[in-house]
Write a structure and sequence with these properties.
Layout (H helix, E strand, L loop, with lengths): L7 H5 L4 E4 L9 H10 L5 E6 L11 H8 L6 E6 L7 H7 L3 E5 L6 H10 L3 E6 L17 E5 L15 H13 L5 E5 L15 E4 L1 H4 L4 H8 L1
Parallel strand pairs: 1-8, 2-3, 3-4, 4-5, 5-6, 6-7, 7-8
Helix pairs in contact: 3-4
The structure holds D-xylitol-5-phosphate and zinc ion.
Amino acid sequence: MKYQGPWPRQAKLGGVLLAPSILSADFANLAADVKSVEALGADWVHVDVMDNHFVPNLTIGAPVVKSLRSKTKMPLDCHLMVENPEKLIPDFLNAGADGITIHVESTKDVLGCLKMIREGGARAGVTLRPGTSLSLVMPFLEMVDLVLVMTVEPGFGGQSFMMDQVEKIKLLRSEIDKRGLKVLIQVDGGVNTATRGFVDGVDCIVAGSAVFGAPDRGLALNALR
Ligand code: DX5
Ligand code: ZN
């Protein structure tokens, strides 16, 4: 099932897409956790894939995406924090990923990866570590559907939002608008009710601990919306 919905600004009249990150869900009860946020109005499921090489943490792979595929209608938004993603992209496409985002620092062949993702029928995204210059992403704006701005160092949930990345979001927005592109801007890391205001105007917000760690997930989603 591929995501073929309209672009969010058309769909939600200025609203923002919410993508809860299952990194903060209960991995032993993943289907129930995903269904709970779907019922409460979440838009995408954010799947954080870590290989203990590109980042110092290890999470899940394509088999989990394959299992989730039949459990939710939400698009599966896979964030690959892995070295040489070209080796894994085919598995994620086959598993039913709707979107795949790769790190610009993780491969020598960013363009080849983006092409592979799009030719596989999924939405292609590119992202960068907080310390990486936005100039490394600019050459790919015409080849992607989404740019993810990391507002924490990738690797772990529950970290503090990095204020110094807000400028990057603004620069990216002005460049996307200047080129007349429909590229979505997504932010990921440390977004909660206290930091939400700093990312006004983005198209998609990833939130892990702020959603799955909240006593009332519905309230948390509404507050982020
Ligand atoms: C970090 C991941 C994030 C993480 C966000 O490497 O990419 O998606 O789960 O978690 P919070 O929202 O808790 O910062
Ligand atoms: Zn992520």
